[in-house]
Design goal:
The complex is a heterodimer. By secondary structure, chain A is an alpha/beta fold. Chain A has 18 helices and 20 strands. The termini of chain A are far apart. Chain B is about 10% helix and about 40% strand. In chain B, the strands form 7 sheets. Chain B has a 4-stranded antiparallel beta sheet, with no helix packed on it. The mean pLDDT of chain B is about 85. The chains are: A alpha/beta, B mainly beta.
């Protein structure tokens, strides 16, 4: 039975269509996955449904009645809520305060809302303490609070944008059971994901978009991984993106560039040791929270190791201790963040301006005066070199798709002419097409003699691109595998036991 | 600025900022079970120095020198000489002659060289490794002036640096010192480069190139490989580089103890050497042994990556003395204390003094990943 229908919906930004003439139908009580590469128009389509943006053309009907939303609040009043990738909760407030935000009474008794929130969360079977600050919650629990807020507002349709991107495997399992419980309560779910297996596992129907256009909608059982990828990118990429385990041959090891010896920081990084060699991709795998990113940030001067007995980092044989990232950048050690939206770029600035910041930070300016012609040339070079799909270097980063934003973040690091480059989750929230391009880039960098470190929580990725796989567990490297030895079972065993 | 900080840091608080660090075993030294799973060539009580004499394998075991025919006339090992003191070094000239270094400091010749006189040096010798060079010259590593080779553990714990490398003319018995003040030289090989020797300096975890001839010819020893994660022992030339035996691993706790003078002094006074906090050729045999930094056994599983006092490690070096690959026996293994190695055609033999056997590995196992 049809709940929501979109007919001939188009949305244009400055004359460029983000979605073109799309027809979409949502049946009551179903889980509907929307898949597509970055820039395919998934977010725009769902934002139209949630009232975040208004369509340029087309009609939307809810329960057979034509509707148009000028704000998310209006969509919410019709029972459509959207849970974004970056949660919209206030981190300094408690869970209960976030649930009742905007509904506070004149004499607002915290005890009252704590009791109400407790009862409400229990009714949803969400194990979250309503008195805890949101900042202290994990990613899965934040999602739960966000979902609870939508359900409390009597949402009939909840749209999730990349809900599992920051969840551990256990948390994902929990999240899927939550979704099923919501469906049992009569809620209809739309979710956007880049993890194709998840879409196949949980959804009833799948819609695939490409370049802003509708490609196919069908029952999930009618798809498999290859069929989805073919529909998403117009060709089969599966083996291009993730080579099979045991088939890859490692590149020859160059000189030892970095030697990490007994590095420690708080209770996160515990006495870890490993080396990084020139001309190779060193893959760091571990569960979320195992200390990989923190180790990388210590190397890059973002975090500081313990001031006493904190271990040693040797760069090209000499001990180094970077107190700020600039010192590391001067030694040509750069870190490409996993959280690009917060740490990776200035979203309201253009590609060129973003590149300029890193250009100056690396001390590559020839004079105190900014040479705009040189910068323009630089940005054009990197836009072309990394195949950033943007109108030109003046395009604001916020207007780019996730994959292209990631390429900008990588370009910012590469223009600093690194000797060691650390990629932290380089393909997180990036579509399949861009994943292939980023993998090829990483491969080229290592073949050119750079020392490349890739941190990834996705096993097929780490196995397919690494010349060595180091496994992290509880703050330290516990095992190393060659590409021939590395299997998902062996790596997971070392990561967990 | 940072170097000034390091100087001040050392002056006022030692190296507490970095703490005790040990280089990782990764890359070419990536742990595996190759040594542990390699076929045992034969079992022998505490086999030590291996040497090749034609188609005969010479090896020492306590005070006994053994020989074993390898090839078509393969035979079980048999004793060919017995000495009053433990044998601490063996070298073969490849033509039926051999030299044996004893724990008492003597160097005795045998086989076709039996008629040669004993060797003279200005200082008492503690032979730990020997190699024959051109024109029958014998190069000898003397581990320490303070301790006999069998008391190597004491020499390490006393932090001595009184080792030396000697060149002897066997026919006259005279010798010259090529380098002194070394921290327990424990392995020696004549290199392909004219007039140079490759020497392992065990307590400093490094390999040196030392010139032969007059000391003035050799100059200052050149460090070619530094910061090894274990204590290097004997070196053998191979078809495509060198083989290096590493007899014990470095550990943070052991490194820490080596910095604590008072603790070490009291440890030496009050604890039996077998139970000192020091590297060992084998471990896990007594509950009196000191505990390690990490739990060796967790939830019933022996952790291969746990830090131990003993370890088995054989490393292949390329022609530039850099590690290319290695074979290991880890914390959960028993083939520890590799003190000597030798390439025999397409195989490499390794003596596990801690595991009481000699193992044989195919050199194909040492191909780079």
């Amino acid at each position: 039975m049809l709940l929501l229908q979109l007919k001939g919906v188009t949305k244009e930004y400055r004359g460029n269509p983000a979605v073109k003439n799309i027809d979409f139908e949502l049946e009551r009580g179903e889980i509907h996955a929307i898949l597509g590469e970055n820039g395919a128009g998934k977010s725009t389509l769902t934002k139209i449904m949630a009232g975040v943006v208004e369509p340029t053309a087309g009609v939307m009907t809810l329960d057979g009645e034509p509707v148009s939303f000028s704000s998310p609040a209006e969509a919410m009043s019709h029972g459509i809520a959207m849970v974004f990738q970056e949660t919209s909760l206030v981190p300094t407030m408690s869970v209960a305060q976030n649930l009742y935000l905007g509904e506070e009474k004149f004499f607002n008794r915290l005890r009252g809302i704590y009791i109400a929130a407790q009862q409400f969360l229990q009714s949803l079977n969400f194990p979250v303490d309503p008195t805890r600050d949101v900042a202290s919650l994990g990613a899965a629990q934040r999602q739960m609070v966000e979902i609870a807020r939508s359900v409390r507002a009597n949402a009939r349709i909840i749209i999730f944008d990349e809900p599992t991107a920051s969840l551990t495997p256990e948390e994902k399992g929990h999240f899927f059971s939550l979704i099923k419980r919501l469906v049992a309560r009569g809620v209809t779910i739309i979710f956007i994901s880049h993890a194709l297996e998840e879409a196949l596992e949980i959804s009833d129907r799948i819609t695939i978009l490409r370049d802003g256009e509708h490609v196919v909608t069908d029952r999930a059982s009618a798809f498999d991984r290859d069929k989805i990828i073919r529909a998403m990118v117009g060709r089969t990429l599966s083996h291009e993106v993730y080579a099979d385990a045991g088939t890859r041959k490692a590149r020859t090891r160059g000189e030892r560039v970095l030697s990490i010896q007994n590095l420690s920081m708080g209770s996160v990084v515990k006495n870890t040791s490993f080396s990084v060699y020139a001309g190779q991709v060193t893959g760091l795998f571990g569960l979320i929270g195992s200390g990989r990113s923190e180790t990388a940030k210590i190397i890059a001067g973002i975090f500081k190791r313990k001031s006493r007995n904190g271990g040693e980092i040797r760069f090209e044989g000499r001990p180094v201790r970077y107190r700020v990232p600039r010192q590391a950048v001067k030694d040509r050690i750069v870190y490409v963040t996993e959280d690009r939206k917060i740490e990776g770029f200035f979203e309201t600035m253009s590609i060129m301006e973003n590149l300029q910041v890193n250009f100056a930070a690396a001390g590559l300016n020839r004079s105190q005066i900014v040479n705009m012609a040189e910068l323009r040339q630089l940005s054009e070079h990197w836009v072309k070199a990394l195949n950033v799909r943007a109108i030109n270097g003046d395009a604001r980063v916020v207007e780019l798709s996730g994959g292209n934003q990631q390429k900008v973040v990588i370009a910012r690091s590469l223009l600093q002419q690194p000797r060691v480059i650390i990629f932290d989750e380089p393909t997180k929230g990036v579509d399949v097409g861009a994943i292939a391009e980023i993998h090829q880039l990483i491969d080229r960098l290592a073949s050119a003699g750079l020392s490349v470190v890739v941190i990834s929580s996705y096993l097929p990725e780490i196995i397919s691109i690494s010349d060595r796989v180091l496994v992290y567990r509880q703050g330290r490297v516990v095992e190393e595998f060659s590409p021939q030895e590395a299997t998902t079972e062996k790596i997971m065993y070392a990561a967990v036991h | 600025m940072s170097s000034l900080f390091q100087v001040l840091s050392r002056a006022f608080g030692g190296e507490r900022g970095t703490g005790v660090t040990v280089p990782p075993m990764d890359g070419a030294l990536r742990p595996n079970q190759a040594l542990e799973t390699a076929p045992a060539m034969f079992r022998q009580e505490r086999p030590d120095n291996l040497a090749k004499d034609g188609n005969k394998l010479l090896f020492s075991s306590g005070p006994t020198l053994n020989a074993m025919e390898i090839g078509a006339n393969h035979k079980a090992p048999a004793a060919i000489a017995q000495f009053d003191s433990e044998i601490t070094a063996v070298a073969s000239d490849g033509a039926g002659g051999y030299a044996v270094g004893l724990d008492s400091g003597e160097i005795v010749f045998g086989g076709v060289l039996e008629s040669l006189s004993r060797l003279k040096s200005d200082v008492p010798l503690a032979p730990t490794a020997m190699a024959f060079g051109k024109q029958g010259r014998l190069y000898v590593c003397s581990g320490s002036q303070n301790n006999r080779p069998s008391r190597w553990k004491r020499d390490l714990v006393e932090c001595n640096q009184s080792g030396s490398v000697w060149e002897f003319e066997p026919s006259s018995g005279s010798g010259i010192c090529l380098a002194s003040g070394l921290a327990f030289p424990y392995g020696i090989a004549v290199t392909g480069e004219e007039g140079t020797l490759l020497v392992s300096e065990s307590w400093k975890h490094r390999l040196l190139l030392i010139g032969t001839g007059r000391p003035s010819n050799g100059g200052v020893p050149k460090v070619v490989l530094d910061d090894l994660p274990g204590y290097p022992a004997r070196i053998a030339a191979g078809s495509n580089g060198y083989w290096l035996a590493i007899f014990a691993p470095r550990g943070q706790l052991m490194e820490f103890v080596l910095r604590e003078d008072e603790y070490r002094k009291r440890m030496m006074e009050t604890v039996k050497p077998d139970f000192w906090m020091a590297p060992s050729l084998s471990s896990g045999k007594s509950f009196l042994e000191p505990l390690q930094l990490g739990a060796i056994r967790t939830m019933g599983t022996l952790k291969a990556w746990a830090p131990t006092r003993s370890y088995g490690l054989l490393v292949h070096l390329d022609m530039h003395y850099q590690p290319t690959s290695s074979a290991h026996s880890r914390a959960d293994g028993s083939r520890h204390g590799i003190t000597s190695c030798l390439q025999w055609e397409d195989r490499v033999l390794a003596a596990s003094k801690g595991g009481n056997l000699v193992v044989s590995l195919s050199i194909d196992e040492f191909r780079e990943d």
